[in-house]
Structure formats: C-alpha cells, structure tokens
User: Fold these one by one.
Assistant:
Number 1:
Amino acid sequence: MQGFEVYSDASLWQQTLEQLALFWSFEDVNATWVLVGSLLLGMSASVIGAFAFLRKRSLLGDALAHAALPGVMMAFLLSGSRDAEVIFGGALLSSLLGFWIIDWLPKNTKIKPDAALAITLSFMFALGLMLLSLIQSTDMPNKSGLDKLLFGQAAAITSEDIQLLVYVTSAVLITVILFFDKFRLIAFNRLYAQTLGVSVRFYEFLLALMIVLSVVVGLQLVGVVLMAAILLTPIAAARFWSHQLSYLLLLAGIFGALSASIGAQISYIAPAMPTGPWIVVSLSLVFFISFLVAPQNGLIKRYLDYRRLRHRVAQENILRTLHKLLERNHFKRNDFTVAQITALRNIQIQTLKQTLKQLQKQGLVRELGGGFALSEAGLRRAIELTRRHRLWESYLSQHADLTSEQVHQQAEHMEHILNQEHEEQIVAELMQRLSDPHGQPIPPKNTLEEQ
Amino acid sequence: MPSIENWILDLWIIATASLVAASCAMVGVFLILRRQALMGDAISHSVLLGIVLAYLLAGTNTLWVMLTGAVIIGLLTAWLSESLHKLSRLQSDASIGIVFTLFFSIGVILVSLYTGHIDLDQECVLYGEIAFVPFDTVIWGDMETGTDLGPRAFWLILIVFTLVALSIAIGFERLKTVTFHPSLAVSLGINITFWHYFLMTLVSMTTVASFDAVGAILVVALLIIPASSAYLLATSLKRMLWLAIAYSQGSVWIGYALSYWLDSSIAASIAVSAGALLALTLMVIQIRKWIQQQHYAKQLQSGESA
C-alpha cells in the first residue's frame, strides 16, 4: 500500500491527475460502470435512508448491513462460488433474518429496542467474521477478496456486480416513486394512515425490504461497517436546507451520489484505499457544511438571529427603563444618568453603554449633558412597549389567576414578542381596563398625539 | 503434542480474554440499564481513531499513551453526539451515527495510509489478534537481561479491570441512583453529567484495553450481549452484575473451545458464543412462558368444567 511520503512526490501527483483524467474520459469502461454504479447506489441508499430516518430508525441500516455478513460467508461456504447473485441472495436472507430479530426481541422480551439493535449487529457480525476466518483457514479457491466486503473496494468490483447494482438500485428508486404517497403518509403519521385503511404493515415491510436491498447491494462498494452512514448522513444534511419531503429526498439523493462518486474515484486512483471510509468522510463534510451555513436552519444563521434578538431585547429594556424613570418624575425632566438607569434595571455597565450607543445611532435616545433622554421616536416606542407590558399583565391576572409578581416576570418576556395584532386582541379581551394589576396606568394608544 | 510452553500460551490468551470479557460485561450492565447500548457501539468504533492518533502523535504504543488517546476520543464522541443532538435538533441516535461513522472512517483511512508505519492493519481492527497477544510482552528492566513479565495486553486489561471493578464497588450506590432514578439523583444533588461522562470514560478505557484482544467491533458484542442475558434474569443490580460476569466467562470458555475445534478466529468465536448463550437463555424463558400459559389454560378449563 502507498504511504504518505509517496503521495508528496510531484511525479505521483501528476500520475494521480492523469488517472483522474482517464477516469473522467470514460475510456476505461470498468471505471465508467463503477461511477454509474456508485452514483445510483448513493442516490437510492440516501433516498431510502431518508424514510428510515423519518421513522426514527436511523441506525437500522447499520444493523442490517452488519447482519448481511454471515449470509455472504455462508453462501460462499456452501456454494463455493463468488457470483454476484449467490452473494446477494445470502446477504439478503441473513439481513432479513437480522431485521426479524431486531423486530422480535423488544416485542417479546424485556430487551429494549436499542439493545436489540446492538445485539443483532454485533452477534451477526461476529458470526460473519467467524465464518470468514473459517473460510480463510480452508483451501477453497478464490477465497481472497471476501474481506473486501468489510470496508468496500470499488476497484475490485466486477461488471457482473455492477449490473446487479444497477438493477436493484433502479428497482428501489422506482418503488419509492410509485409508493411515494403511502411512504410519506406512514413516515409522518402512522396512526392516521391506519385509520385511512392503508395497509401499514405491508408498506412497512416493503420499506424494510428496500432498505435491506440497498444495504446488501452496496456492500461491495461501501462495505459492511460503514453502510449506516450512507443511509443516514445525506438526509441529516438535507434536513438543514428544506422542510419539504420531495426536496429533502432530492437533496439527499444528490449528496449521496456525489459522495459515493468521490469515494469511487479515490478508490480508482489508489486501489489499496478502502472506498467506504472516503465516502463517509466526504458525506460528513457535506453534513457539517450544511449544519453551519444552511440559510434557514444553519448554525451561523441561528446564532446571528439569536444575537439580533438579544440586542433588540436589551435596547427595548433600556427604552422601557427610561420611560419608567420619566413616569416616576411625572414627565417633568427627561435626562437620566447611567447610575439612575442601573438602579432600576439590572444590567452590566459595559452592555448598557453599548446599547445606549446603538439607541443613539437609531435616533431613539439623545445625549443631554451628562445624561440620556428619550427622543420623540424613542418615547413613542417606549410607550408602545409599556402599553404591551401592562396589557399582558392585566390579561394574565384576569385570565390566568397569577399574582402580580408572577405576571410581571411573564410580561418582561412577552413585551418583546407581542405585535400590533396581538395587542388589539388583548384590548378586545380586556374591555377598556385603564390600569395594570400594580395600579399603574396603561398608556392609551396615541398618548403622544393627545398630549 | 501440546507442550508446557503451549499450555502457558493458551493460559495467557484465556486469562486476557476472561479479563476483557469481565470488564466489558460490568460496563455493559450500565449501558443496557441506561439505554445507551448504541453509545457503547459508537465509542468502541471511535476508539480506533484515538489509538491511531495517539500512536502517530506520540510515536510509541505505550500503555498510557493508548489509554489517554482512547479516553479523549471516547469522551469527544459522547460529547459531540450530545451537542450535535442539542444544536442541530437531530434525533440522538442519528447524531451518534453521524459522529462515530466519521471517526471510524478517519481511523480506517489513517490505518491504511500508514500501514507500513504502525503495527495495525485493517484485519486487526476487525478481529484483534488475541492469538498473538502472548508474544508482545512487557519486559522489566533491560531489553536483553530483564525479566519477562507477560503479555502487554494482559497488563493493560488487568489495570482497566481493576479500575472498573473499583469504581463500581466504590460508586455503587451513586451509580445505582443515577441509573434507576435520574430525577431523584438530581434532587439529591448528584451531578448526573459527571457520572454520565465517568461511565463513558470507563467504556472508552475498556474498549481500548480490549482492542488488542478482540478488535474494535467485536467489543460491542462483549459489552452488550452478556449484559443483556443478565438483564433477562436479574432482579437486582448486584445480581445483574454477577450474572453478566458469569455469562461473559461462559462465553470465553465455550468460544475458546469452539475456535480450537473449528480453527476459527478466537475473538469472533467468543462473541458468537455470547450470542448463543443469549439465544439459549431466551429459549428457556420462552419455553417456560409457554409451559406456564399451558398450565393456566388447563387450570382455566378445569375450572370451567367443574
């Protein structure tokens, strides 16, 4: 195998590029087939994995892939051939057996679903490895290469394997398209589907069969150990970009196909490299990029939203405090020092100064002498907030039977969230109350104009 | 003809395997009870990355380097899966799956990149190499003249076994409360997070110590299966721990005999025997259930006819 030093060699880089060029020139028929196969596999596995994910059985694929191993070894041990059909048949049978065990254990014994999954996975895998070690200690012909199923090796795939792969993945994709509505219904609301008279058991079995098929057919390419990721990671990444199932499936399919083809290329350039891990690494890359930058649910976007909200809340709190000070001074003077503000509201000096600066920039607060005063626009906004705060307090004390201290805490949060519409609804509910539970007046809507 | 030397080799192998199985069983009991079987699966996979990285960065494969590397990566796996679950609002098993497949992949890639440089290959990641355990020994003192203290893997698992047994013995009451009544534990002021990560540390240490013997994936079988068998029968935590240890030792003996007879991988055979013992237990339980049902049905019938 090639070590790291060899790669840094310039001539080898060139060789790598040439290999890549050869790969994409489609002159090597085998390479082209591997590419097609990996694209199809990535697509079908991600799409079918999406349904497993939605049914909250993300790691089912992991267990089923591990469970396929003893079947493969048994099939080889009994038949002595490595034909794609034989291997496929064995894998399919033992994978289905694994599915049955995972289903049976929690229903009939004390064993919990997660333990059932881990038991099946590790036991079947151990059985497979035991059979493999048995095979390797015998002198059966063409036994070498069976261990490539563990981590997958695209370079070792035969054209026969690819044919089977193309058939099965196409069948899976077509099934999903045909039964899309039923699958969607069951994935989101199983009970509702049952009341509609849909045969849930049948479709669930069909879905499980599709999962097993995609897993089993992908073993050559991705390997037993890492099959879980190609079912799970694409849909998890897609989820950051959209909420609509058809888009989700499309995106997951694209992510899966992309990563699978990257893995296949690396395996083609460096034949000793296992394919599965590279597919998983590229998938994870897609996942973490999506996790960070997705425009609606990405971490960065959510952090920015959170910060914006925090700033707004801080600003609104200062406006309210200034208004309260104004009220206490019976609207006689309108400039207050930092000390006066902090006496009324618990806030760090540093944050307070920053927030005041922001408010000045927006023209809501003016600096007067040593103190700060509300501008007209600021006053308007402060009155609006105070009005909402007190309306909410009154609403709560009238309808939720809370004490006056409790309502204040609640209103501190709600004043930032309520909008015009809510405000009108509360006014209609309260029927012209003029003061809040603490006895302070609720400022009417157009206070400024009246004054 | 089995000579004395062969006997000693066998003895080292069985002793190592017994300790591996017993430590895994004890830790596994808590994984099963806390419904974190999948976390055990995840950590045992990721530990590979910890071992490879520790080896590449430190350049040696001393016991402490390996242990530290594995514990760090193990805790990182637990922490990352949990934060991913919280931050991205993915289901917890999905976030576990994403993290451990990534770590394991990087581990496998590093292993295949540096195959010539590390005494690790894809094979031993899978099976471990318990048959070679006796040949990698710790030597006290000088390389030439020092005394041979026995296999490295044996000493590593002995240390970890002692640590696990001691922590469970000392922290027994705390662990019990945290496991069975997490909300009571919170109200008593017990730091649940600490105990969670403490358990994860134990899992990581056990996995890395078992790595030489049984590889990264078969550890899962030893963690989960004996503990599950015990879970079926046990009525108290103490009894479950003892039962799990008993099951694990049974698996080691049967598995070793099986591998001797079939000439198969020792580690895989031990894991398969653990599964077979679980299946046997399940069968006995189901048959007893069935007999009881028959009995009740008969009683019901005779009651009706009387």
Number 2:
Amino acid sequence: METLTSDVAIVGAGGAGLRAAIALAESNPGLRIALISKVYPMRSHTVAAEGGAAGVIKDNDSFDNHFNDTVAGGDWLCDQDAVEFFIHEAPKELTRIEHWGCPWSRQADGHVAVRPFGGMKVERTWYAADKTGFHLLHTLFQTTLKYPSIKRYDEYFSTDIVAVDDACQGVVALEMRTGQLRFFRAKAVIIATGGAGRIFPFTTNGAIKTGDGMAMAYRIGVPLKDMEFVQYHPTGLPGTGILITEGSRGEGGILVNKDGYRYLQDYDLGPPDPWPRKKAMELGPRDRLSQAFWHEQQKGRTIKTDYGDVVHLDLRHLGEAKINERLPMVRELSKSYVGIDPVDAPIPVRPVVHYTMGGIDTDINGATRVGGLFAAGECACVSINGANRLGSNSLTELLVFGARAGRAAAEYAAAGGGAAVSEALVTEQAEAAENRVLALFRRTNGIEDIAALRRELTATMEAGAGIYRSEGSLQEACAKMAEIRQRYASIELRDKSNVFNTDLTEALELKSMIDVASALAVSAYHRTESRGSHQRLDYTDRDDEKFLKHSLATYAAQGEPRIDYCDVVITRSKPGDRVYGGKQE
Amino acid sequence: MRETIHQLEVLRYDPETDTAPHFQTYAVTCQEDWVVLDAINYVKENLDRTLSYRWSCHMAVCGSCGMVVNGEPVLSCHAFVRDYPEKIRVEPLANFPIERDLVVAIDDFVEKLTSVKPYIISAEERPVESGENLQSPEQLAVFKQYADCINCLLCYSACPQYALNDSFIGPAALALAHRYNLDSRDEGRSARADVVASNPGIWECSFVGACSEVCPKDVDPAAAIQQTKIASTVDYFMRFLMPWRKQ
C-alpha cells in the first residue's frame, strides 16, 4: 500500500473541512494539507442547506440574545463555554466569508440582510436567498483553489483512522477510481464528514450522509456524545424528504392541519396573532414543531397521503414577488417534486430527519481524546446544540469550529505532532485496515444482501427511535441492531471490479451506519427522561438531577457500547423552562 | 399511485473487463412521481449491484447525477420518468472520458475551473473587524445568476465547441470567471484575462446556446461568454486609446 505523507489530513470537504483547510493554509503556509473526500467538494451535503446562518450583526440584537436562544433552544444541554465562543466568532466568520465573495442577500443600503428563524428572539439569520448552504459551500471551495498547499484527494473513501498509543497517525482511504488503498500518513487528522441522517428512511440528508467519520473515530475508542438527539425538521416534502426551509416560516409562512387550523397554538406556542412574531407559533424551535405534528397525527387532524400524513405549509399570503425573491428554490422544488406552486396552493409537509446533534466527542478546540485527532461540523459534538439545534446555527457552526479545529491542528502539527511511536505498530495498523477492506472485497458465500440489510436498519431506527420513543421501542431497536451487526458479517459484494465500485463503498457505508445507529439506540435507551428532541413516552419530564449530562457511547467490539455520562458546562444560564409563544411576555 | 413499466437501457462499461461500452436493459416498474434517478436506484438496490453512478442530494443542487437521458443531458434526479416514453436510454455525460458505467472523469473541468481563478482577488485583504463590504441589491443582481452554477457539467456535455476542442475552457468555468469579474468586491479581471480572453475557445464559441438550454439552474453561460467577449474587445482597444486606464 502506498503511503502519502502530509502534515494534516482532513477527511470530508464540505463546509467544515474546507474551512479547516483554509485556516490551516492561512495560519501556516508551510504545512502540507491533504483534503480527502469521498465526493468532489461541491457535492458535499452543505450544498443542500437553505435558510441561512446565524450571527449577531444588527443594532437591535445582542450576543446575550444569541447565547440565551441557543442554550434554551438546546434545553440546557449545550456547553456554555462553547456557545459563548461560538456566538462571538459567528459574525466574524460570516463577515470573512462575505469578504471571500459569498453572495449574501442585501438590504437596499447595501448591508447584509437578516431574516427571522425558529427559536431566535431577534432576526439574525444571514441568507443568500434560500440557497445559503450552496453559496457558502461553493464560495469556500472556490476560495480553497487559491492555496497551493491544499492538495485535494477527491473521491477517496476513508475507511479507518490509524492511531497508536492514543495518538493519531493518519487515515487509510480507498481511491475509488482505481480501487487502490492508500495510507495518508499525517501528524494530525481532522474529521469533517457531516451527519448520519441516512440511518433513517425518511431524511433530508443526501445519500452520502452515512456517518463514516463518526464511525471511524468511534471504532478507535473516541466516544460518540449525545447521539440520542436527532433533529426532525418539521417541513419536508412527503415521499422524497426534500427540505422546505424554515426560512419560509421566517418570511411569514403558516402551518395548518386538515381543518385549516393553526394547530401550533394548542402546543404552548400560541396565540397565533400577531403574526409573524419571533419565538412563537411557526417560529418555535424545530423539536417542538415536530412533536406537535406527532400529536396532531394521534388526534387524526393531519392529512392522509400516499407517503404518510402531512400538514399544510401555506405561503400564499406572501405573494408571488416575495416568494420569487426570498424563496425561489422552495417554489421550484415544490412545483417539481409535489406538483404544487406555493403561490397558488399550500405545500404538503411532514417532519423529516434532518440533523444529528450528537457526534464525535470533542473539546472546544475540536480536539478529541486521541492525540492529533480533531473533528468539526455536524460529525462533531462540541457541544453548542445540546438537545435541539436551532435552525441556522449549523452553517455558522461549521465555519466557526472548522476554523478553530484547523488552527488547533496547525499548531499541533507545527509542534511536530505527538510523541514518537513504534513505526512497526503504525504499519501493522494501516495494513490491518487495508486487509479488512480486501477481505470484504474478496469474501464469497455471503448470504446477506447490502440493500436489504440497509432497509432493515433504517426501518428499525424509524420504528424504535423516532420523534417519540419508549423503553419497549428502544429495546427492540437495540436488539435488532445487534442482529443486523451479526448479519453484516455475512454480506458479499456482487461487484468485483476495482473501478468505482459502489457496491464496495455502500458496504463500507453500511458498516458506519450500523455503528452509529447502535450507539444512537443504546444511548436513547439509557436516557430515561425527555429533553429537547429526545422524547420518551414513559419518562415525559426533563430530569436535571440525573440527566443534565452528556451521554458518551464507547465502542465495544462485541456487544453493546458502554454508556457513560459527563457534566454539561454551565457558566451563566441556569437550567430553566423553555418558554415560547405568549408566555414569554 | 399510477405505475408504468419502463425499459431502462443503461450504458455499461467496466475498463477492467470490457473492450467497449455496451447497453444493458432493465425492466423497471416506476411510480408516476419517480425521477430517472429513482429508477436507477431501483436497479441498483434490486436488480444489479454492479451498476456504478454518482448521486447524493436528490434535489437538484449537488450536481452529482448529470447523465444523458434519451439524448439530452439532464440531472437524473430532476428528470421525471412520466415525461419519457417506455424506452429510456441512460448514458454518461458526453465529452468526458467514461470512468465506469455512468461515471465520467471530470478532472479536465476541475483544472479549468482552477485556471480561471474563481475567487475574490483584491489588492489587499480587509480585516474582518472592518466589517462587511457594502453591496447593493442591484450590484448583487449583476452577477448573482452566474453564481448559481452547481458544476453539474450538463453544459459541457451539450457544448459543440468543447466536443471539437477540449482546450476550450467551457461554459461553466467561463460563467464563474464572469461571475467574479462582475462582482463589485473583486479586482481580479485583469488577472483572469490571460486565461479567459486569450482562450481560443471563447472566440470560436458560436453562440449556439446549447449550454444555456440544458442548464438546470438558468445560469445562462452563453450570455456570460458573449459578455466576456465584448468586455475583452473593449479592453483590447482601450489599451491603445487609454494606456493609463486601469484594467
């Protein structure tokens, strides 16, 4: 196996990975940077984010507001030191990417425009129409082309992190074009592979969001933190799960049930008027809105379709001109994929898996407990999102913590990396990783089918670990995941070609999905309380006494992960009630 | 929901075993709201694990799944099966080497994109503390359309000039160069001129407009190329008339 040596290797070239690469190149132009991704950077799923990125910039806003919104939105499970850093860095990062050319939408006077978003007290979401993630990703990607020290390895599928004596030595990756494995030897590695929404059947996440980076870190002993917290976005198109941005409610859209009734007023989010109004009704936080849908469905007040129940997102009162200016993609997506022009008719929507709040356990620098291994973006859990992320905090997060992890990795690498380790052990580990892939590639007599096993996995997660959970449903999910893990050992590839073999990469992705889904189900089973996006039908209250804590799932080669807990960092906001709607006044 | 059976004729090519590409036909029962990508995914999941293609977002923004369907370059996630006859022929994008099945090698585009310096070039980098650049909605509107390019490369597949002459930088990369040239925050037009204006291709671009016709995001690269030609011509003459003028 060929070894390619660099100072820092980044796995994942979406928003966080690209931002980390630029931070590395700028802080130390002498560093050799390997930017490795299983897709070309512009295909990364940051591209699909729509509504915007939060950062305090206007005179009517304050850092305290952004802090309080984020911490309460996260049901007090956020680390407040990380949130503090985040909110202060946010406007700087958003300004920086403005300087790099991001086409932010503007006010008439030329200043950047902001729009209201769910759970935010003041409008502070910068946006580029409703294609913010797309513009942010392309601006970052195009900006990386300036730096000769960033060497890209596009369509290289990373399979394993190599670590010896708790110090990271690099990653092993498959060159998809040739089927050859390479050892990317590096002093530091940054994981920036995004979320794992594909472990659910109905998700806004693209096909590539299979949790590979989370699983790689997990398998070398880095815990996955707060994995039980999965965000359902309240407005996805039925069937495809295509995201209809929260920006459409920020601009004034309303949600109604089958009777045309704005049902959110029945769930502590009303009264409905005046509208639009911050932190109320349709501008409540995502967890509350998705849970309200579930209750409406129980009451039989949702609308039946071929793709499950829906409610209606009504934008008609915004008028065609405003829809075209602010929400052009929403209009186009709705017309194309459900045949509804939102100018004339309400859009059918239902809650859809959107975001993993949990992820690789890191400190505020993005550093993990393995020396030289960093993580940033959705794959990481710093944690600023706690039990429920507020819309438009994630694009900002990947800039702020992508940059921070990049700088931290630059320092680590410039200082020479970790202590010297046995070269024989490094080689042995890298070869073991290579041999695992080759064994999978060559295995015969397999009886399990990759696509069928993946369908069983996603169905298991939806049934057991959806918007509402219970001991029974989670027990079943954990047992089924254990079974799927066993059966994975009996899969066999049907494609034996070395060239762009997606049978092989899907098999590798399925392994990641199994690891991440198991950690999620077991973490959820052990959290016997309801907090944010984790709602238990059998433990309906928040239990700060026992569970004002982060969960940490540690991989076990055999059997279920071990679950431990660590304290949440509380600096200036004591846990209180999350108040939305009229009760705020 | 209404279902129809389609014969999906898919181009297959594995350089390890095939001397030439060939077609393989799959019968797929499609629902009326399916896109061509759904039918291909059905094949991959249920009929043939060896089929290779790229896809991710399934919402026409990541640009991965460009293919030629019944002769037209399209995003397969945005091409509805109901708009096609019973026989649907699926081929990789034209004008790029086939890597495997529906996967083409796009190295040439990535190099060309890099060559046009698609990033803000300014004499001095402003510190973030100085705040945002002011840019009016009108100034934004001047380039916004060209910034909407998702790099799906349907335009290269459709471009008769690129088919003849692969040194032509091509529609998407030229549109992106133009996007930065038009941005009120940018001062890099002369730095890009070496590559853009001197590229023989742009003068040979015949304004057929095939690129703009197939563009799924209404970027209109043909307009960008025509505007680039005009701007370059003006630059050329101004050099003699007003040699002191900043380019």
